[in-house]
Amino acid sequence: MRRINGSAIIIVGLVATVAALAFPVWSYADRSGTGQANIAASTVSTQWGPLTATDRDFLVKVRLAGLWELPAGQQAIERAPTQAIRDTGDHLVVGHTDLDKRARDVAAKLGVELPNQPNEAQQGWLRELSAATGPEYEQKFANLLRDAHGKVFALIAQVRHTTRNTLIRQLASDANVTVLDHITMLESTGKVDFDKIADEAAGLATASPTGPPPPNGNLPPASTPLEPGANGELTSKPSAGAPGVVNTDRPDPGEPAAPGGQGAPAPAQS
Fold first, then answer.
1. Could you tell me the pLDDT band of residue 154, with boundaries at 50, 70 and 90?
2. CA 265 to CA 215: how far, in whole Å?
3. 3 state DSSP class of 231
4. What's the sign of the alpha-carbon dihedral 33, 36, 38, 40?
5. Segment 33-49, tens digit of pLDDT
6. Phi and psi for 88 in degrees, rounded to 5?
7. What is the pTM of this model?
């Protein structure tokens, strides 16, 4: 019995050792079904870094945005009843002409095929604008385009944060400048329905909001200002210029990289 029990203990020990050795191999080598495996399965290598499905989707969406927003801007220049809408249309045309050039350049280098027509929803928005006139046209123009630009912000942030491809990262930076400029102009028309935007976002929320308690009518204590230490003269400028103004002075995609990184945008003017 002692010999049998001793053999059993040895066998159990061997099985446990093999299992312990096998577990890390399964955990780290075989990652099928995990998020990392799903990303890796659709990722290709390029000289500018890995190119994921999300990167390629972003590139296509930049192109699609220009395919409907540039015509919408052109239409606004030609038929909008107020100067604010016409000025916004001007920014849409200029911004998407520039951004589309950058997107097509990146797509050509990465071998990504781009669409040449707006998608069905975008074509529907263009038809809505074409059918509207007067104040209704202004309202539709401001809100359809503001909603579209606001929603793409999340994708730009995700791609800018996570991409390992330097071309896609720079395009995300460029897209962020363009989209923020267009949002600023659309809001300057005074026609954006912020209540509708907030209600739609709240309807899609799945978690309870967090944050400090609501004001109780009493003034809170003043916050302590942030002050730089005595570390010599500071030379950089604030990232934004005048309130409501977005710097869009970016180098042409064919120009040499600016100091500070490949294709780095020019510093903001203060």
1. confident
2. 40
3. coil
4. negative
5. 556 776 777 899 999 99
6. -65, -40
7. 0.76
